[in-house]
Amino acid sequence: MADARVLVVDDERSMRELLAIMLRQAGHQVTLADGGEQALEALRGGSFDLVITDLRMRRVDGLAVLRATKELSPHTVVLVVTAFASTETAVEAMKLGAYDYVTKPFKTDEIKLTIANALERKRLQDENVALKRQLRRERGFANFIGKSPRMVEVFETIRKTADSLSTVLVTGESGTGKELVAQAIHQESPRRTGPFVSVNCGAIPETLMESELFGHLKGAFTGAVATTTGLFSAADGGSLFLDEITEVPQSVQVKLLRAIQEREIRRVGDTRDTRVDVRLIAASNRDVAKAVAEGSLREDLFYRLNVIPIHLPPLRERREDIPPLVAHFIQKISAELGKSVRGVTPEALAILEQHRWPGNIRELENVIERALVLGSGEMLEAGALPPDLQRPHDGPDVPLEIPPDGLDLETTLDRIEHRYIQMALTRTGGVQTRAAELLRVSFRQFRYKLQKHIARAGPR
């Protein structure tokens, strides 16, 4: 690490000057302190990459300098030098965060190597911090594109919410970015270094829900061939995101409520409770108040989850955000595809702005990706957009009036449902979980309806 800022602390002038000459010859910026008091003044007035301090000094000793350095600048590397070596002082210095411990008299080559290693440690620390900042940008607010007043309000709520431990309930249609909200809350919080665990409750079979969330002991039930910790334990020290919270069975909701209240869980088959430190964020694309009224979500659990509510508006209600979203996705996806697409033509943008986007931001991203894969040139043109966006949207083939001889309501509704399932599967490339989200039903509901229509169609 060249051109490092180094503070040398020693009450012996000859030792300060020796280290200063050595460090300046290596190209480093050197500040000298005659004892611990001057060192504390220097630390309060500036920042340093490396502090080299003598241990035994008048009034303020090297351990005090070490403590002050770690308090004022935790990432500064500290090297302790002393003529009074002992196991006790060495252990104490290392416990306080010293990088290394060198005894006088030392060989020049020895201390040069130790200093080089210490500065390499600092370089790696700085690189790690930079990577973490980049990760926060990529997974935090940088993924949120929006200037509309409603999205600005969402951003502000996330900022205010992040530092607390309060549970958050995120609502909004499928594809509006509920998991992005959860990730942003986690990344902006003190828990950012802990795990972020995400689970779609609608994709877990009811019989396995309790085991997935809380874990189980070996032999707790048929098929439990090994002990598992569960998702709560996996998220210990971090955040747990439970999507489609209304799909959790009533029997598990009781245990979920207890986990939130007591911060304790009990694995299936266990008789002991386990403490967990988890920040819970739940989400649903359903009307949660209606789910409570219908009895599918316990009222007491709803109030525990709804401490901080965040509602994400659908894309059709914030059309001013479509142009920046389109620009963001073009830049992101074209880079992934190795293409150099500069932007979108006015004709194509007009089509994108007029579409209702039932699949919201996820649908918009998929459309941009398809257009960039199939299109060519430096601009995304209208001709590269899917045909159903380029023509006025027609609804299903439904009679506007009841025919004179009447109609079979069940058959008509069944035909409409079948058509929408086909359209959803076509739009999502056959991915059933995404098709279910597009139709705003749980994965279990979608799978049941799909199997019903396949059975009715019979062998072909």
Overview in brief:
With 460 residues, the chain is of the alpha/beta class. The protein has helices at 13-25, 36-45, 62-72, 87-95, 108-139, 149-162, 178-187, 206-214, 231-234, 250-262, 288-294, 299-305, 322-337, 346-354, 360-374, 387-390, 409-427, 432-438, 443-457; strands at 5-9, 29-33, 50-54, 77-82, 100-103, 168-171, 196-200, 239-243, 264-265, 274-275, 279-284, 308-311, 343-344, 379-380.
In words, what does this structure look like?
With 460 residues, the protein is of the alpha/beta class. The chain folds into four domains: 5-135, Response regulator (Rossmann fold, 3-Layer(aba) Sandwich), CATH 3.40.50; 140-313, 3-Layer(aba) Sandwich (Rossmann fold); 316-390, Helicase, Ruva Protein, domain 3 (Orthogonal Bundle); 409-457, Arc Repressor Mutant, subunit A. The chain has helices spanning 13-25, 36-45, 62-72, 87-95, 108-139, 149-162, 178-187, 206-214, 231-234, 250-262, 288-294, 299-305, 322-337, 346-354, 360-374, 387-390, 409-427, 432-438, 443-457, and strands at 5-9, 29-33, 50-54, 77-82, 100-103, 168-171, 196-200, 239-243, 264-265, 274-275, 279-284, 308-311, 343-344, 379-380. It is elongated and about 110 Å long. The model is unreliable at 392-397 (pLDDT under 50).
Give the topology, please.
Blueprint: E1 5-9, H1 13-25, E2 29-33, H2 36-45, E3 50-54, H3 62-72, E4 77-82, H4 87-95, E5 100-103, H5 108-139, H6 149-162, E6 168-171, H7 178-187, E7 196-200, H8 206-214, H9 231-234, E8 239-243, H10 250-262, E9 264-265, E10 274-275, E11 279-284, H11 288-294, H12 299-305, E12 308-311, H13 322-337, E13 343-344, H14 346-354, H15 360-374, E14 379-380, H16 387-390, H17 409-427, H18 432-438, H19 443-457
Parallel strand pairs: 1-2, 1-3, 3-4, 4-5, 6-11, 6-12, 7-8, 8-11, 13-14
Antiparallel strand pairs: 9-10
